[in-house]
Amino acid sequence: MPLENASFPHTHLLGIEGLKEDEITQILDVADQYVKQNRRTNKKKDLLGGLTQINLFFENSTRTRMSFELAGKRLGADVINMSTSSSSIKKGETLIDTASTLNAMRPDLLVVRHGSSGAVKLLSRKVDCAVLNAGDGKHEHPTQALLDALTIRRRKKRIERLTVAICGDVLHSRVARSNIHLLNIMGARVRVIGPPTLIPSGVEKMGVEVFYNMEEGLKDCDIIMMLRLQTERMHGGYFPTVSEYFSLYGLDYEKLSHAKEDALIMHPGPMNRGVEIDAAVADDLTRSAIQEQVEMGVAVRMACLDILTRSKRGDQK
Description:
The chain is an alpha/beta fold.
């Protein structure tokens, strides 16, 4: 049986940590097929016809929520977006109460973003459907790492043995954590670069090299992943000023010159132009894959929805 048609041994997708190389490869292979489908005039399939997908976002998100919504609709699911700003959660309902209420509605897929690490895993224990983590606190954001991996694999034809630099606010970034897990599983060499205040203590134990100087850290890199400064999670002074941060850690052409000539530039979005990346660099289509990441996001989320519902649908495609 081809790998992309094999059964997937997990009920939920809560994180990259714990996945095996062949399981990640399976998701990427399926996503590759959905890239082709999404470039056709008729982008829809009825694969998830009759199934219900609920997007439950406790944190604001435009890109991720729209990407999951589009993914579900292109596969034929009934998609419901639940806004917590107008829900019973704002009236004091607990997460477990919410899980029980949703479970009684018998959804087939639950896509959850939450501000607390571990909240999505807790919710997954209280429902009978497949749960996909769309980002929980500072913990993980698995589909972002998968879409980044798909972007890299399509551009570089491999992930193994590439040198990848993850730069900026690593401390608060669930994107960084998921990418570190995935890249290590897939055999890449991972570096993190940033000011000491934004690098987690003991991050070396995750299998990365740490650099506090951009020029040194970017030397001979194949991939540069820039991270957004998550000021909403910062309490206290992590750097003197935004202009000083950009001077030391913002990606511009001078710093980029230390990486390989064909180094690929990535960013999970939304971007703060002139803070973590220069506008000209971000828009350089010969180097930047930022818009391609957005496209890959829909395909990856379609693949995840497909794979997690195969046992329910009783088929292997």
